[in-house]
Amino acid sequence: MSKVILVLSDGLRFDTAVTGMGYLGHLVETKLASLYKATGELPTRSRPMHETIHTGLPVNVHGIVSNLVVRLSSQPNLFRLAVAAGKTTAAAAYF
Predict the structure, then answer these.
(1) Torsion sign (Cα): 38, 90, 76, 59
(2) Is the pLDDT reported for residue 95 higher than 90?
(3) Helix (H) or strand (E) holding 79
């Protein structure tokens, strides 16, 4: 069974993430994972960035403009597309 796990590390400099996430770095070195550096979409806040990553859309299109906007996504996103394809999704977060 193929699985995709997307790990987002919010508010952490890229070089710090690379040096501080040893196990994930090992997975990348052994070609069991991929590492991508995302360029921030303004405003650089958690909810707008997560919505941009999940939808592929800029903030002015998806409308999540700050961390204070609390609502379900109104756009097609990774979760909805996976469910429409008969896949199971999950999300976990820590604050």
Answers:
(1) negative
(2) no
(3) helix 78-84
70, two tokens = 């609390």
The residues, any chain, with a CB within 8 Å of residue 57's CB and separated by 6 or more, are 51, 75
Spatial neighbors of 28 by CB under 8 A, at least 6 apart, are 34, 35
> Greatest CA separation found in the chain?
40
Q: pLDDT class for 1, splitting at 50, 70, 90?
A: low
Residues 6+ apart with CB under 8 A from 18: 25, 35
Say whether 21 sits in a helix, a strand or coil.
coil
pTM of the predicted model as reported, rounded to 2 decimal places: 0.80
